[in-house]
Amino acid sequence: MSARGVFVSYSQRDRDTALALVAHLEAHEVSCWVAPRDVPPGTDWAEQIVAAIARACLMVLVFSSSADGSPQVRREVERAVHRRVRVLPFRVENVMPSRSLEYFLSSQHWLDAFPPPMEPHYARLTAYVKTLLASGSELAEPTPEAESARQRSQGAEGLPDPSALLRLESELARFIGPVARPLVNRAVLRSSGVEELLSRLGREIESEAERRAFMDAARQSLRARP
Q1: Final residue of a structural domain among 104, 135, 166
Q2: Which residue, 127, 133, 130, 87, is CA-closest to 110?
Q3: Domain span at residue 22?
Q4: Residue 86: what are its φ and ψ, rounded to 5°?
Q5: If both were cysteines, with which of 79, 96, 153, 164 could 160 make a disulfide (CB 3.0 to 4.6 Å apart)?
Q6: Cα 14 from Cα 92, distance rounded (Å)
Q7: What pTM value is reported for the model?
């Protein structure tokens, strides 16, 4: 797995789902590491997992009631958080984490993979993962220079302030899900005013009707005060 790869964590009961997810990601040129496939014969299993997590820039957690109760999954998530590797829960059951995982996952974005069929959920996750890997800044702590540039851009004349951007992100997320955050961040840096910003974000929505609905809601949200 390359330094920009994805570590896929799952419980044994969700093995088929995890492998199908890996196949979908790799078909779209996203490098993955998954056990036991990528554990070399004759090597120490735990050592290989720890090393793979350290090399990853993102962990996708196939989350279910089985994963929630798995000590192995909990250890992998703990190691990822310790290594400052972002964890993306891919929730395949309508369950919430117990206290053993809640501490690590409560601040994370979630992607839900229900109801079936699974293919649209795999496609949505793949698009989100590729956006995160391409954006880079969403996967690591920003440098002081990058944070300063972001703040200058958000404070530029004609662009929304940070609180308004959060409302705009929420409106966009209604149509395309959690991928809204990196898209808003990227669009702000490339836009010189509100209308250009909204136009860039609107292009991320395929349906013309939903695009118009987003634009109307976004304009209303930006006119509102916090």
Answers
A1: 135
A2: 87
A3: 6-135
A4: -65, 140
A5: 164
A6: 9
A7: 0.62
What contacts 36, CB < 8 A, 6 or more positions away? 45
| Residues 22 and 92 both lie in one domain | yes
Structure tokens at 65: 């009631």
Based on the fold, state whether residues 126 and 154 are members of the same structural domain: no
Specify the pLDDT at position 136.
Answer: 64
What lies within 8 Å, CB to CB, of 175 at 6+ separation is 205, 210, 213, 214
> Are residues 55 and 105 located together in one domain of the fold?
yes
60 is a domain residue: yes
For residue 103, give the DSSP letter.
H
The mean pLDDT values, 10 residues at a time, for the chain of 226 residues are 78 97 96 96 93 95 96 94 91 87 74 91 92 66 42 51 83 81 76 87 88 92 71
Edge-to-edge strands, sheet with 32-33: 32-33, 6-9, 58-63, 86-91, 111-112
- Grouping H, G, I as helix, E, B as strand and the rest as coil, residue 194 is helix
Q: Are residues 14 and 80 in the same domain?
A: yes
DSSP string, 33-45: E-TTTTS-TTS-H
95 lies in a domain? yes
User: For residue 24, what are its two tokens?
Assistant: 């979908």
Token readout for 42 is: 């004759």
